[in-house]
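Example 461.
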Amino acid sequence: MIQLYNTLTRRKEPFNPLEKGKVKMYVCGPTVYDFFHIGNARSFINADFVHRYFRYLGLEVKFIMNLTDVDDKIIKKSNEEGAGFSAIAKKYSDAFHEDIRKLKILPATIYPAATAHMADIIAMIEKLVEKGFAYNVEGNVFYDISKFTGYGKLSGKNTEELEAGSRVEVNSEKKNPLDFSLWKKAKEGEPYWESPWGKGRPGWHIECSAMSCKHLGKTFDIHAGGSDLIFPHHENEIAQSEAANGKPFANYWLHFGFLNIDSEKMSKSLGNFFTTRDILQKFQAETLRFFYAQTHYASPLNFTAEALEAADSGRLKIDNLFFRLEELAKDALPDDSLFREEYARFEEAMNDDINTPKALAVVFDAVKDINRHLAESNTATAYLASAKKFIQHTAGDVLAVLGEAKKEAGLESKLIELLIQLRLEARKEKNFALSDKIRDRLKEIGVILEDGKDKTSYKIV
Ligand code: AMP
Ligand code: ZN
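Predicted structure in complex with adenosine monophosphate:
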């Protein structure tokens, strides 16, 4: 049974979806005004670990990630680039799709865009006004937080604490400093939509409430996003959705830890970021995923180039073994009675609040074991096929850290085999100095030769 840490209840809970065998999950997506950075990528990849693990378990996942395609930042960028706001949104939505594909992130079932849901957004605001949860001040509509008794339940703070701890927008039109915009009156030159309150555009929070309801219903299973979204974004989403629908909103709230750089959150506004595109020029997507999988999704993680390089060499150990197994196992059929314990341990780790570092450790234990077996001669082909399947299912399908550098990895084993052959020839010619040198030099770089009765095998340590 999967246990998930639920921000709303502040404890780990058994995950029981509303409908058996199905999961409805909503993750806050990007504002499409620029290429996304590897901090954003960490949240998207962590959501993907959850998504992929549900799929591995055979659950049917309806996964929704929204795109915020109208917003102050997009309007600012469109003025800077001299392009229309929708051209900017289109350019960076396309870039977003391209980048997440490269990161091996499973596609969402739907990527709803705010501008395609104006009628739903306006209808939800109308309902809030009607029910007395919102007020209109000359074309600007605000949510009245004093009307919602549960305000603060996600962040676990009362309104005084929230007010003191946040930079709330000063606006004399608001009744309470924590009240927030549902509808913003259009300023000169800004994009707008017609509404019962005049020309304007929606606030950010209402988009997610309206689009999650449209695609997942009033109550759904999981809502996730980076932990910077707990307050105010997710707190406000709860206030809007529960007030409008009169039903509980999401049952489980998952929040992803930050990617930091020099102990500060990587962010666009601080300028301390690398775009995903920068990083993918130097590293494989699988390496970035491996780097993220080494830390639990909720913990902060510090980014350094050295740590990414270390992740790269760690990950290659799995790749090398996998491609060796592919060559050795060929078309052999796996024996499903093998690797049961390894699968059980892997699942136990992932069931424990998606503990990817523990799951990776299980994969590495198996890699060590399999390498040991390979060093023994005459390993059964059913074992090789089962080993390959285990690596494929865990490191491949769930974590997606298995690389595609087949040619390169295959080359490595071919080179080792070549050196083994040359050593054998040296021995035949009684050139023991050379044959010992080959064995010792290989050992120095972590390749241990083991002479069997009729063949020499090797293991990588
Ligand atoms: P944004 O485009 O800024 O709305 O962010 C998109 C997603 O990335 C949100 O879920 C944010 O919480 C998340 N995010 C932003 N910065 C970071 C970071 N440094 N580490 C992890 N997640 C982040
Ligand atoms: Zn959202």
